[in-house]
Amino acid sequence: MSRIRIHNGEGFEQDFELNIASIIDCFVVVIAYLLLSASFIAIGAFDVGIAAQGAGSDATPPKPPEVTVSVLLQESHNAVIRVSGKENRSYQVEPKGDSWNYEGITEQVEVVKGKWRSLASVNVATEGGVEYQALVKGIESARKAVPTVFIGEDAN
Q1: CB neighbours (10 Å) of residue 109?
Q2: Do 129 and 73 share a structural domain?
Q3: What is the mean pLDDT of the chain?
Q4: 69-88: per-residue pLDDT in tens?
Q5: Same-domain status, 73 and 123
Q6: At what angle do helices 102-115 and 132-145 cross, to 10 degrees?
Q7: 15-29 burial: b if 16+ Cβ within 10 Å, else e
């Protein structure tokens, strides 16, 4: 407790004790709550490439890929793997229990990679209600088959 004396210049003085113990107790509880409810997440590095070419560059533009592959994680826990370009096809990966079949996603992307050896990247997207954790696991699954994975939107 702190003792405080107030003077108002006209001879009036008052002593009172300031009890800040209850305020400190409140802050201790708030700090403990914030520390216990904080999420400590370790995020690995995502490969993100930016293709930029200077205005005065003499380099020829890169040849477009034969096919582009996108993985869409749906709210129903289905995964749709779309191949577009020289081949237009969709593959369905059925859920495993009540979650996405991440091993099935890896296997199906490996099948597409075996068919199109020039496949260098995969785009992974989600529907609106899919959690971030599922997106990260989808990226990890696709990365097992193709090293470069981009996060994108579903291009229905």
Answers
A1: 27
A2: yes
A3: 79
A4: 889 998 888 899 999 888 88
A5: yes
A6: 40
A7: eeeeeeeeeeeeeee
